[in-house]
Task: structure prediction
Amino acid sequence: MEKNEPVDNVVKFEQSESMKKEFRHDLPVSEELKEVLLIKIYNELAQDIVQKHFSEARSVLEAFIDEHRISGEKRPALLQNLFWWRILYQVNHGMEVPFVEDYIAKNITFLKDKPLITSWLKEWEKAVTKFYYVGYMYNNRNMVLVDILTNETLDVVIYDRTAIPPKSGEIVLGTLLPIGDGLYFPIIDFYHFDYQAREHVARQVKRHLTAHFENSSLLETFIHLLSQALQIEQRIESDQPIK
Result:
């Protein structure tokens, strides 16, 4: 009788179109599927959303940025992150921004036998723009972020080679999407708060998030918290005292 020996190498189950119908954050995806999600699906969907909705939102978002006197070099990142917050806010409040449904309908032939991709697309509608503390940097593209509200740690990878690498210890603003194996990536490059303002911003955001989150959703509370955080950043940059 043969004796079963312990197996040291454990093979992870991969998510692939032939095996799974529901996308799971914790399971890895095959390299083939990851390439489809990040190169084809992401690029097509993001470009489609921007083309359809950015011009309509731009004037309102730029007015908010002007009010907070954001410097020229930081304006694009804040504008882009505000745009994605606005899109997700409208989706979560039943407004007419069915971008996932529109994309699926437009690509029904390609997606009809790919339920895992369809399931991943629906993750976009669940995404929330948040404040994160950069807990650890493995390198310029791989890091651990800490959700300031929940203290949840997330492994994050930046695929955009033009993105500005965060610094360990700074506060960033962004929207994360899952890509399997417990990894997440920002839908657009982060907005980086001034490094000198990190402690004041984190303290203010944490306090007000805790106070307001019980009575309203994070998407609703976000714009008020962002306004306070940007005001703190401006005072730090201009050497004004923080109240």
